Amino acid sequence: MPTLLVNARETPVDTGRRLATAFLGYFTVVVAVITLVPFTIRTPPDWRLITAFVAGDFAANIALFLPIGFLTASISRARGIGSLLKAAALGFLLSLLIEYVQEFMPERIPAAWDLVANTLGATIGAGGYVLASRGGRGLDAPMVERLALDLPLAGLVYLMVPLTWLTALAHEGTDWALGLTAPLGLMGAIVISSVQREGLRRRGAGPALLATAWFASAVLAGAPDQLLPGLALIAAVGGLTALLGNATRRSAETDRRYEPKTLATIAPIGLLWLAALAGGPLLGGVVSFDFSVAPVSGDGGWSRQNVLRLVEQPTAFAVLGYAIAQWIGRRIEAFATSLAYVLAGAVLGGLIFEIARGVADGYGASLVGFLLSVGGAAFGCAVYHLQLGHLKALRDEAREQQKQAREAAEAAELARRRTAEPVRTALPAALETTEAEVVLLEDVAEVAAVEVEVEVEVDPARADDRPAPKAP
């Protein structure tokens, strides 16, 4: 069984929708966590609603629902205005559910403008997909096709988006919030520019704008008090993406092996980031090992930041699991074998992570946190194999189209030959007639020559009175 849950007879439309649905569910869960933590439910004494407009919150809520609208449009069977309406309806209903649940949470207060922003974000995301997919074969159409999961590295970008959000929000207000977010921005810039340069093979500002918008939504949400450094970091990520994405490739031919090279480039950055995430708390002091089965341990209990840090772990390991599966994917395509390698790496990384947290002052190791990390890596591996199945379906469809085109060309050539057959049959006959005529003329010439010779043979007595015949 080379891939996960993929029928060889399925079309790319089927496999693409399954893959996009997996990402849509993943984004929905992450958005629900971000908007509902710390999950304290109580009956409110009265109904509450905020109607004040806050520009920062409005922009952040739009950014949260952009991927949801984009993915909804990509899996929708409707096209044009129909996909826009579906995305807007999903965004509105999901936001309405979130705002309703927040009514029962003491730490949360529903806001009318959040409902508007979320619906608008889903609509804009769907509109971006629709407009780009209608762009023909120009810059935008291939970009949306590839970033809509037709390239393996596109899946890695999708997994990094919620990780960047959670990292910025989980460490909001700390001195190292931007420091932990910056490596993710650098990795994203390298991956997106690689997709543009080697996958899309097109110049333009589209991918850089996407990278800028994605990173800006995370930085502005997680570090609003560090506006100037944050803006500089956002500009650096966008500029680096544009610079690398529009760089001249070494060869005019497509490097079909560029994914391993890209992974090898970002691997040291990702490992250093994981080490900083695990070892950063040790800077606050080291204590005796503290272990708990509960999901959240250490100081703060079920505070907002503790829950976000808990969810940050499996999202980070989802990226790790996807990267490991893709790294070995060229050699190992069987899902079970690939999963074994991913789980081995996740168990080792999870143990190191929890041991570091267990001895950090104010933190603590968690069995549930360890299991969530391993589960996140397994999810990343499963997503990669879903995408691998989608890519194989695309390849099989391309081969089938090439086969049909070849058969059509052969049929056209056969028809052309049959049409030309009467001409080829008549031509030799015409040539034979001409040759016969030539032979006849040669015979006539010979007879004429003989008659001339007879006329020349005259009486010898008068031979001296006649001039000698001229040489022919």
Question: Can you walk through the features of this model?
Answer:
Helix content is 72%, strand content 1%. The chain is mostly helical and 472 residues long.
Please name the defining characteristics of this protein.
single chain, 472 residues, mainly alpha, two-stranded parallel sheet, 2 strands, 72% helix, disordered C terminus
Strand order of the largest sheet: 1-2
Order of helices and strands: HHHHHHHHHHEHHEH
Secondary structural class: mainly alpha
- Number-wise, the strands total 2
* Count of separate DSSP helical elements: 13
What level of helicity do the residues show?
A: over 70%
Q: What is the rounded Rg? A: 37 Å
Largest sheet composition: 2 strands, parallel
What does the average pLDDT come to?
79
Shape: globular
Architecture blueprint of SSEs:
Layout: H1 12-36, H2 55-75, H3 81-102, H4 112-133, H5 140-150, H6 152-170, H7 177-200, H8 206-222, H9 227-245, H10 258-279, E1 291-292, H11 304-328, H12 335-358, E2 365-366, H13 367-456
Parallel strand pairs: 1-2
Helix pairs in contact: 1-2, 1-6, 1-13, 2-3, 2-4, 2-8, 3-4, 4-5, 5-6, 5-7, 6-7, 6-8, 6-11, 7-8, 7-9, 7-10, 8-9, 10-11, 10-12, 11-12, 11-13, 12-13
